[in-house]
Specification:
Elements (H helix, E strand, L loop, with lengths): L1 H14 L9 H10 L10 H10 L4 E10 L2 E10 L7 E9 L5 H15 L2 H12 L3 H14 L4 H13 L4 H14 L4 H13 L8
Antiparallel strand pairs: 1-2, 2-3
Helix pairs in contact: 1-4, 5-6, 5-7, 6-7, 7-8, 8-9
Length: 207
């Protein structure tokens, strides 16, 4: 997993330097060691976010790896490091265990950067939604999805637009499910889905 993480970091540093100022592994290890954490094993998501805030990072990449027979599913997530509802995008790939390494990290980094380009549209969708400009909000969400169809934040914004306009619960749930399918680590989406299922007393679908 550390090899994959190094691949993500190196691709962001070497190919996307105009967008990201990555923290070197040496600096990260120094902060982790000084804070009492090891730097040679994966961190819990809560610890990673705590460290990212301590280092004044604007964005954080999280990930998980799941072995499936001879293959490994790698899920990576690029998220704002702070905020009540941080904008985030997720990407995944499946490789054989022997082929999962720095190259996999580089491929995931490229996909995350594609999603990052739609962050501004999601932010504008939320802003317009707060201003009750529902048409403008929907346009921004759809623009985000044209740029990156896997943007869960855009679907979450659409769900909130539908709800604000008094739309059907089925339409709201459909948008939330689309968001969850694209980012299964998005806690804001999970909370919204759980709330809707509880309201329908549909405990079979609670996450």
């Amino acid at each position: 997993s550390l090899t994959v993480a190094d691949g993500v970091r190196e691709r962001l540093r070497s190919t996307h330097i105009d967008k990201f100022n990555t923290i070197t592994r040496d600096n990260l290890c120094r902060v982790l060691t000084e804070s009492g954490f090891p730097c040679d094993i994966p961190l819990e998501a809560s610890v990673a976010r705590q460290v990212s805030r301590f280092m004044n990072a604007r964005l954080v990449v999280e990930g998980s790896m799941i072995r499936r027979g001879d293959s490994i599913l790698v899920v990576a997530r690029l998220s704002e490091a702070s905020g009540a509802a941080p904008t985030a995008v997720s990407a995944s790939l499946i490789n054989s265990a022997l082929r999962t390494g720095a190259g996999s990290g580089g491929e995931l980094a490229n996909r995350l950067v594609d999603g990052y380009r739609s962050f501004d549209e999601v932010t504008r969708c939320r802003t317009k939604l707060d201003l009750r400009d529902y048409v403008g909000a929907r346009q921004q969400a759809e623009s985000a999805l044209r740029q990156f169809p896997g943007n869960a934040g855009a679907y979450l914004c659409i769900a909130r637009i539908v709800e604000a306009q008094g739309g059907s619960q089925d339409s709201i749930l459909a948008a939330l499910r689309s968001a969850y399918e694209r980012d299964t680590l998005n806690t804001a989406v999970m909370r919204s889905l759980a709330s809707k299922y509880q309201a329908r007393t549909d405990t079979s679908n609670l996450l």
